[in-house]
Fold these 3 entries.
Entry 1:
Amino acid sequence: MTVTPLLEVKALQVHFDVFGGRLRVLDGVDLVAVAGERVGLVGETGAGKTTTMRAMLGILAQPPAVISNGEVLFAGRDLLKLPTQEMAKVRGRGIAMIFQDPTAALNPVFDIAAQMAAVIRSAAGDERRLSKREVRDMSVAPLKEVALADPERILDSYPLQLSGGMRQRVCIAMALAASPRLLIADEPGTSLDVTIQDQVLRLLDSLVEKRGMAIILITHSLGVVRERTDRVCVMYAGTVVEEAPTSSLFGSPIHPYTQGLMAAVPRLTGGGVSEGIPGRMPAYLDPPTGCRFHPRCQYAMTVCHHEKPPQYQVGDGWKVACHLQGNHPIASNAAAPATESRAESQSKGA
């Protein structure tokens, strides 16, 4: 049975025209989310995760940003082709985003009631006139849903009168107020302590189950991804290099970059010191040709320097953008393609 995706991003390309030249940031991003699914988006800082989400929502400043290619299909409509007014309706009603820093997301000079009211009235649009009492009641409901005690007091408070965890829950409540079908959570626990972060993530899990919405969780934490997602997309330098069901990815990662991320995780139970990935993220002013990971990849071949790898299907819902999959038999585990490539490189060196 084929499931129709709620969101489908195809070959999204974004560059920024700046004083020093052109930053080629997103280099053909592909991403899919299905209703009721939790998708993790991971990668190093600067990989393009947040830029992808902002481009989808139409909140990138243009200029300097330029969306040069691609489609963002949401419920069958290409968001990149929608007029500004139509796109404003999609934001909130269709897609909502929880930003990384709740302090920056909330306006300090307005109380929570005013900010909730702005979201609710915007979602209602011109079709429905809401009274102050209706708006107040509609503001209380999502605050209760995110387990905030005494929502009436919260509504009359200013952001700086709330703790970090409470502000983050308010941001989630504001995102839920318009009943979106897709929720984007950009590092929702970064500014919180681990206990509150766990509470927020559990809350998001329950909302997916209760409302049947899809969620895209942007994070640097592989532990969070492993526990909280159904499927993972690994981004590197503006492209998705590996996409797989969470259990499969953590069982046997295939792409050399994904393997490097796994090896970099601290080992709390012993077994040696964690290994880092040599080198650093390429400069977007002059990114490498071919595969953008090849300068840091110990298995790089000649073709990697000149041709961008396509996405190879290596399993059910599992795709890998790596030339190793095109030059060697599909691996059943992470070590197989790496071993063959190492032998090839040794023979060349000899």
Note: The chain has 14 helices and twelve strands.
Entry 2:
Amino acid sequence: MSEQPEGGQLRWHPLLREWVVVAAHRQHRPQMPADWCPFCPGSGQAPAEYDVFLYPNDFPAFSPNTPEYREPEGLFDTAGARGACDVVLYHPGHTILPSELSVEHWSKVVRLWRKRTMELAADPDVRYVLVFENTGVAIGVTMPHPHGQIYAFPFIPPLAQRVITSSREYYEATGKSLFEEVIEKERTGRVRIVAENSRFVAFVPFAARFPGEVHIYPRRQFEGLWQIGEDEVPQLAALIRTIRRAYDNLYGFPMPLMMVLRQAPVRGEHPYFRFHVEFLPIQRSAKKLKYLAAVETTSGVFLNDTWPEERAEELRKAIPAE
């Protein structure tokens, strides 16, 4: 093989009609090192002092230093994985849990998400910004220090495109917001509401795919972090903290989960799409994990081992008193 670019290479999957990122250099990233952490203060990657900190991923799947992206044309087509991958360090403490961060500290994380999203949105090579977090060894985390990531894509990822398409088609057919309709039904029924405040509402979706899946929706319409108001930042931070505390209190240990911030594409206007946060935990009981095995992985049809209504009640009861 010839020398590989800093980021990955996009390869077109003609049967699924979607890109696959080949990034073999990521095989060499550290795997839970026992006596060294690149995310701790003064480690070389992180400064000697910080509250929250962002730096470019050392093993990026997407990078500005790759060939230019282009739309697929042939059966076995390739393109440059042009974009960016960032690491977001939530806190200097190596062993602190995300659920242990204060509202004030989570607000700093949200502001850093917003700032970086806006910077990436200004890059003409970027079409979509994905903010996400993996937590727990069971998820596949390679570094235990509390952190998340931000990926900037040169295309719109398939799952994001499905949500964009469904919300646009609903809006065109009814003149109504699909997200607003969902929020109204959940707040009217109440059975799946986990927590809410003056600006955001958190609930287990009616058709939750993961055990104890929770979504956080804003009460007002906005498309992405670039439109969130400063007065809404602590309200989002507070609800993120509440849900994280409920998860970790549910079974008495840190919940392995994925967290993702769903945003509209950074190009164009998408008034039918609403920013939201999704938590995707994989702990289906105190001693059992949810694995995405053959049925889910090969068919795309999820099997949920828990009733959303029951799990919502359990999470409400698991919210610890202040």
Note: The chain has six helices and 14 strands.
Entry 3:
Amino acid sequence: MHTSRKLSFALLAIGAVVAIVAPAAVTRAEPSEAAATRAEIQKTFGFLPGFMKQMPDALLPGFWQEMSGLEMNPNTALPGKVKELISLGVASQIPCEYCIYAHTQFGKLNQASDAEVGEAIAVAALTRHWSTFINGLAPDEQKFRAEIAQLVGHVKKLVAGTAPAPKPMMVTDARTALEDVRQNFGFVPEFIKRFPPEALPGAWNMMKSVELNPNTKLSGKHKSLIGLAVAAQIPCRFCVIADTEFAKLEGASDREIAEALAMASMTRAGSTALNGLQVDKPGFRRDIDRLVAGARKHAAMAAREKAMDGR
């Protein structure tokens, strides 16, 4: 009996050592797919960013394939600038410091102006604002859908000129806010009726000045796609319903809607990995700056070569 116990303890000890040593042995032999992916990234960027070194071997190949296939692809339905602004809107309200910095820099690399960056963030903020209030009210979904359909129908009449155009109005209190809502939407939706009257003028003025404003730097379609992307990963079912209809009203195709949602999901996945791995933030910023500088240099060289070929 005594000998049997000694043997059992010895086997347990050996098992414990194997459990500690075996994973280390596995990590020394990097899976070939992850190694090939890192080599491809090195070739593409001229260096291997630190956060991609840290990314788990099982995750990296697919993540890179999706990133290069959608975000970095110039031949998608959505232009590069809009894809980056969608990701910035999503990142801003997660919030994810890594992704905010990266997508701001990538957006500017794709010619996004400071005003467009600000508008993307504003749309994300307002989506979160109304999501919070509407979800808290817990309205009947079918009634909400019916009101969105009624709102969209009225906007179509405004565009066709079969409904009277809204007149400029100074919104200073709840009464003038409700009157302005009625002339823009044709009626007052339930979620606006139930908004606190003291806060309504400011809330309506924000919505009207950002989301309903035809004179912003971003188009109505792209603002709606940013709102939809943000709503999809809050997640807010009511805002998804509304922003899908608004995006279609503004001319968004099914492909554009799918790409906006895919950018949102990819941003959320990247944010989770970066934050969970506790990637060094100063090092991450240096990597992003290096990526952007390399892309600018490559674009300048390509432009010079094109100019020389045109001589």
Note: Residues 72 and 248 are 25 Å apart (CA to CA).
